[in-house]
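Chain A, query sequence.
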Amino acid sequence: MKINNYNLAAKNINTKFLLQNLGNKGKKWIAVCGVAVFMLGGCTSLKKTTSQIEPMNKAQKNTAPTTEIAPPAIFSSSGDPNFVVKVVQKAGGAVVRIDSTRTVTTQAPDEFSDPFFRGFFGSRVPSQPRERVERGSGSGFIINSSGQILTNSHVVDGADSVTVTLKDGRIFKGKVLGEDAVTDVAVIQIDANNLPSLALGKSDTLQPGEAVIAIGNPLGLNNTVTSGIISATDRSSSDIGASDKRVDYLQTDAAINPGNSGGPLLNSRGEVIGMNTAIIQGAQGLGFAIPINTAQKIAEELIAKGRVDHPYLGIQMVTLTPEVKEKIIARFGNKINLSANQGILLVRIVPNSPAAIAGLRAGDVIKTINNQPVLKVDEVQKLVENSKIGIPLQVQVERDSKTLQFLVKPAPLPVNKEN
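Chain A, predicted structure.
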C-alpha cells in the first residue's frame, strides 16, 4: 500500500523550493524494520560494525582505580527492582518474529548499469526482465488467542509471503488482514489457537518518567529485552521527520534497533502501551512508538473491513512565520500578496479534491477550523484526522487581506495499491 506524496490532508510541504529557500532542514529517521530490510517506508540497510577492547598500557595498569557511581535502578510503581523479569516472564511468549519476502522485477541486470556496458551498447543496452527477492524482518505481538497479531505496516508492505515464528519455535504462515500506511499499523492472522496474548493498556494517561520495557528481535537477535522510561509523549510526526504519518508518538530511551519494529512497548504491569516503530538515524536513546490507543483503533478497523478511511482535504501547507514570510516575499516579491504573519499557508491545492471543490486556493492562509485557531501544521493534521468523512469543516482563511469562510467536506484519503 503506497500513498501519493501529495494526498495527505495535512502534510509539511517538502518541495525543492521550500528546502532551498525556506531553510527547512528535515530530520533523518528510519523505520526499524529488520536486518535484511525492504527499502520501504523509510527503511534503510544496515552496516555491520565491530568493536574492540584495547588492552591497558603500562601507565593504565599503574593507575589507581577510580570509584564510579552506578546509575540508579529503575523501579516499578510497586518498588520492585526485578519487575522487568516478571513482565518478561508474563508477556514474552506473546512476542513473535515476522519475516517477509517480496519479489521485485527489474528490466535489466545489475551489471548493465556499469559505465563500460553503457558505453559499449549506447542506447541499445539489452533490456531483460530479472527478478530478485528482497527479505525483511521485524517483530509483532499476539493480541488474542486465536492468532491475530499486531505489527507495523512497513514490516509487511508489499510482501509476497509472511512467516511468523513464535518464541517456542513454531512457525506459521501469516495472512495480512489489512495494513494502513498512514499510521504504519498492520494486522496479521495465523492459523493457531490457544496462543498466549498480551493485554492492551491505555496510552492517553502516560507521563514522562514511567518505566517501560521493549521486547523484539533487533538485528536478528530474537527475544531481546530492553528497558527504560517514557521520555516524552505527543511527539508529532513532523518532530521526528515523518510528516507523511498521522500519529503522535511516544518517545522512549529503551534501546530500539532495526528489527524491533512492530514489537510491544510494555508498562510495569505487562500491558502494551505502545508499538515500537522508529528511531532517528545516528541518535541514541531516541526511540518512538505508536500509542496503543491509536494502534488498537486502527487494528479494529483493519480487522473489520481490511482498510482504514482517513479524512482528506487535498492541501499542501506550511506553518507561516515572520521568517517564512520574509523568505517568500524575497523570492516572489509582488507576485504574491501575503499580509498575514502567522497561520497555515496553503502552497498547493490538489485538483478535484475537497479543498479545490470548496474554493480554497494556493496562497490562502488558514486562520481557524471550526472556529478553533490553528498556528501549526500539526494542529491542522489532528483536526482533519479527527473529523468525519462527509461532515463539512468550517475553514476561515485570509486572502488578499480579506477574511473568507469556506465549507470543506472531507473525503476518504485516496490510496494507491501496487501489486
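The longest helix spans residues 292-305. Residues 53 and 384 are 53 Å apart (CA to CA).
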